[in-house]
């Protein structure tokens, strides 16, 4: 793409953003309030059913409802609100800079590692720490070391413990392992992580089970299972939006003096969409439209489905690949990549 083409490409995408921002209003406010109401209803209903967990149908229903509420809280509410997508409403409860979510990761740390570092330096090696989360080898350009023989195992552990993996994101464990920094250098970060992990642990595994009285074991197991479901789902959606076959990584040198149009270009090449129905998109936090999210992270995510076809048409005109596919297909390519990159290059 020539500089002139990149500028024209960027101008067309800027026009989409400006049009959507100008159109924000009551239907967007109504949408997020309905989602919040649904999330709270699912949580209250799920926790109530877990108190009757001695009956298997009640336990299964309660666990499913609680898992759905946690997914909505993390994906469609927390993630999107913390991007500032609803700051324009002026509602103190929906201000991105103050929002706290139901996750082990402190929201202030998330806003730095995700909103700033990841969305500014998307898929740039040694700058975007979402490439492998400091744990995995997710690019052939990452230097292989014997540690990566455990790539598949680390990926599985990250999946089932995802909220804790995200919580440790800002700790920069790879820099600690290499000796570049020490644990003492991250004292304040660790303090924030421990405070949030402690709060979440007490809520899910102490307070609510104790409130259940003799049914405490059922509530404990339900909370643990709901968190596991949320972790696996979040991991699957996020990894399928960033690492399936066809997505690309970049070097710091490649983004020097990057224009707005080339920034857009990089966001698209480093992202992938997932196809599905309305409720699939809602439960994914509309991160099933990862391309549009990377292009316009501050636009309410439920709007991404409305502009995705237009974005795809622009990409087609400029010869830019637009990666999309169903979740199972994309996830299989992610698994293959994780497995392959664990072996020493020949």
Q: How would you describe what is shown here?
A:
There is one protein chain. With 346 residues, the chain is mainly α. The protein has one domain. 62% of the residues lie in helices and 2% in strands. It has helices at 3-23, 26-50, 56-82, 107-120, 151-160, 162-167, 173-178, 187-211, 216-242, 260-269, 278-283, 290-295, 304-318, 327-341, and strands at 273-275, 324-326. A two-stranded parallel ribbon has the order 1-2. The longest helix has 27 residues, at 56-82. The chain is globular.
Distance between the termini: 33 Å
From the spread of the alpha carbons, the general shape counts as: globular
Give the % helix. Answer: 55-70%
Mean pLDDT: 94
Instruction: Report the portion of residues in β strands.
Output: under 5%
* Helix count from the secondary structure assignment: 14
Structural class: mainly alpha
Topology as H/E string? Answer: HHHHHHHHHHEHHHEH
Question: Could you give the count of β-strands?
Answer: 2
